[in-house]
Structures are given as C-alpha cells and as structure tokens.
Amino acid sequence: MSEAGVQKTDVIIIGAGPVGLFAVFELGLLGLSAHVVDILDRPGGQCAELYPEKLILDIPSRVKITGAELVQDLMAQIAPFKPVMHLSRMADKLEKLENGHFRVSLDLGEVIEAPVVCIAGGGGSFTPKKPKLERLEEFENKSVFYSVRKMEHFRGKNVMIAGGGDSALDWTVNLNPIVSGMSLVHRRNDFRGMQATVDQMYALVKEGKVALNIGDIVRLNGDGGVLKSVTLKNAEKGEYDVPTDVFLPFYGLTMKLGPIANWGINIDSNKIPVSTENFETSVKGIFCIGDMCEYPGKLKLILSGFHESALMAHGSFHYARPNQKLKFEHTTSSSNIQAKIGG
Question: What pTM value is reported for the model?
Fold first, then answer.
C-alpha cells in the first residue's frame, strides 16, 4: 500500500473498553493522538456489550454507575482529543518498520502506522457465539453474519435477526428503515436489552414493520451459501418457514486472544507480562493495559486499568516524541491542559 493509503498517529490502541478509552485521555494530556481499534460495533467493550445496565460500584467518586453511563462519560471526556475510532474492525497483522514504527493492518483493509501500540483488549478479541445449526458454515459470510460492519450491505434485503439482547434489538431498530423485510426471533417474549430499545422494537412490531417470532430456529434453507428461508418452530404453529435473505444471530460473545498471539510478544497462559514501570511488553514500543496484562499483584479492576493507562501514556511519550522532554503537568493547575479540555 502506498504511503498515501496509510493512516498515521502517535499511538494505536487495540481495544475500546473503558481502559482503552481512558488511555486516549491520558495520551491527549501529553499531546499525543490516538487511533482506537475494536472488533465490536460500539465503544465500551464488556461494559457496553455484557452489562450496559449493571451497576459498577468501585469507580472512584461515583457511588454507582452503569456500564453504559461509564462509557458515555468516558466518550465525553476524550472528545476534545478527537480520537479516530475504527469499530467493527480486527487488528489482524502487525509489522515493524525500519524507522522503528509499527504498521497495524485491519481485517477490512485499513492500515495504521504509529511509533507505539497499546493493547487494551480486556480478555482478548470478542468472537461470536454461534447457533448450533447444520450447514451453518455453508452460509457464513454470504448470508449469515455475526456483526453489521456496513449497513448498506443489507439494503433491500429480507433480514432475520435472532437474539434478545442489546445488539439484536439495536440492529432490529437501526436496519429497519433500509431493509425490505425484518423478522426478529427469540426463544421467549422477554428481552434483555435496554427498555427504550425494547419499546422501539415493540412499536415497529405494532406498525407491521417487524415480524416478531417467539420460538426456536430449526434449520437454514438454501443452496450455495444463498439463504432462501429459515425454519422456525413453536408450540402454536409447529414448524414454519420464514423467507430470509440474510440471517444475523446475536447470541453474545466469547473472548479469545486472536491475532495478537502472533505478534511476537511474550505471552504466558493467555496473559501478557509487562513492566510495572510503564506497562511495556517484551517488545519495545508495545504496551499492554487492562485485564490482558499480567504482573505481580495484578487486580482485574477498571480502576487499576485507569492507573495503568496513565503510566503507559508517560512511557509512550519518548517513543512518540523522541526529541522532546516530557513536561509533567497537573490538570488542576495547567492552563495548557485546561485549554485542551475546555476547563
């Protein structure tokens, strides 16, 4: 790829969970820019995907805060530093350049270059939980998808979404205006998503824009990866076919180390050992913070990750600005910092 096609920044952050987001803030205080890569379609990591409405009780100064509220506040906090977010993307390949910088290639083709890479991927890359259906692999990436990367791919299609959580409900609502038909299937008439989105879904059902099916998925029907219908089953109707062009099962996510395992970093039992001085890994210029990093006394807490973010940012500075001296400033007294964040 030509230089013109490479996006350049100071730090590439792998993971848009709370720790990765706060790292943007700490880097921004030092004048360093960041691109953030995450396989999910929204920032927030586990907070957004697994417990958006669950209370978190150990964030300093917050008596209680939900996962969704924490992510919302962190996004507002980092907004002045204008991070570039690469969502629904996987950091696929890492290359060390002659100038000491790193190039990270994403699975949809983008290439980012930076002198520093920070891994903040929690327990690893999220991978989808797949339904147990015969012939599933035949349809994957042709008619069956586990995420929505480009909405336009589904324009004019007859789409079936399966699941009862936030992802299933969000995409039922968001894709509805552009599809030719929409079905939502869930095993029970009880949904785990945010109530406002549940209400939106039921409103679309009432308007005839979404066909709600309560039951089980039996099989996929079609040939050569081209889906024609999905067979459902419930106590009222027995087995019946629903015409379907695209099937989107949102059954939750599991975590795996992913391509990072092939980046030449010292890894021990799926954890990345780091120096507690600055949370640098065995590879100079690559740092790791959050649940994935390992060191004596490590606690898997968001507040610990916030501390790790601050030291990582300071450790990154001499790679990103090798000819400058780091000037440490407090946010309470620095007019320069306050100007940056609108204080």
Answer: 0.69
